[in-house]
Amino acid sequence: MHNPLLNKEFRQRMRTNRAPVVITAYLVSMAALTFLMLYENVQGQFALLLPARSEQVFLVVSLLQMTVVAFLTPAFAAGSISGERERRTLAVLLTTPLSPGEILIGKILSSSALLALLVMVTLPLYSLVFLFGGAVPQEALAVFGFQLYTILVIAALSVAWSTLALRSGWSTVLSYSTVTFMTLVTGLLGYALQFAAVRFPADGFLAQWGNELLQLNPLWVDARLENAVTGPFHSWLIFVAFYSILALALLGLSVWRLRPQVLSFMPGVSRSDERNYQ
């Protein structure tokens, strides 16, 4: 895919001193945490390491990694378009041959690239789990694939909010509110409804809505992929379908926001001047 904006963003983000420092610090922190947990589980005797204990390490490390990348992604993506607007370079960007869709795709991929790299560099750490039989390769690949998708969808939502909101402050608030809904609100409400369903078993809708909310939580779905919680095996499909539709809807509005003339053929769509958004 030839996208000059994506190439420029990659060079700007990866050729700075901050990128290798962030990657090295993250890898060292995750490695120290993994070895500390393994050492603590066996009390210094690695010969006592059992598959069940290494499975717990795999679960904790993957959930921690999911939490970190979920809350870091908006920091890279929430100001991508609104920052261009505030620097008064958005109008110049729109005069290039790039379509609004290509501009959004370039921003999404460039803002999620470093987070995806953080996930990939931790792959060797999980070899320790394989060594002691705590997980099978299929589980690890499913977890990594799901984490990469979560990064991509959060980056897409953050770029969409960055386009729809006029200022970086508002787009940052909306992006972190979205991540809070995904990770905290759905989890707390889901488990609260399941707890209420145990107290009032006659109300079947409580358990059903509790399960529906938990399937929208990336931490719960991550744990389900590792068989650490009970629930439908294909819960990840509900997660992917819901957030893909939400991201596509917001990105569609973002295309109209960047260039209102693109959707002017549709009935009911305003033919507003794009200068109103720059």
Describe this entry's structure for a reader:
The chain is mostly helical and 278 residues long. The chain contains 12 helices and no strands. The longest helix has 32 residues, at 168-199. The model has no long low-confidence stretch (mean pLDDT 84).
Offer a quick outline of the entry.
74% of the residues lie in helices and 0% in strands. The chain is mainly alpha-helical and 278 residues long.
Alpha-beta classification? mainly alpha
Helix content: over 70%
Poorly predicted segments: none
Order of helices and strands: HHHHHHHHHHHH
- From the spread of the alpha carbons, the general shape counts as globular
Describe the biggest sheet?
A: none
How large is the count of helical segments? 12
Determine the strand fraction and express it as a percent band.
Answer: under 5%
Radius of gyration: 21 Å
List keywords for this structure.
single chain, 278 residues, globular, 12 helices, mainly alpha
Q: Which helices and strands appear, and what pairs or packs with what?
A:
Blueprint: H1 4-14, H2 18-42, H3 51-77, H4 80-86, H5 90-94, H6 100-121, H7 127-131, H8 137-164, H9 168-199, H10 204-214, H11 218-225, H12 235-258
Helix pairs in contact: 1-6, 2-3, 2-6, 3-6, 3-8, 3-9, 3-11, 4-8, 6-8, 8-9, 8-12, 9-10
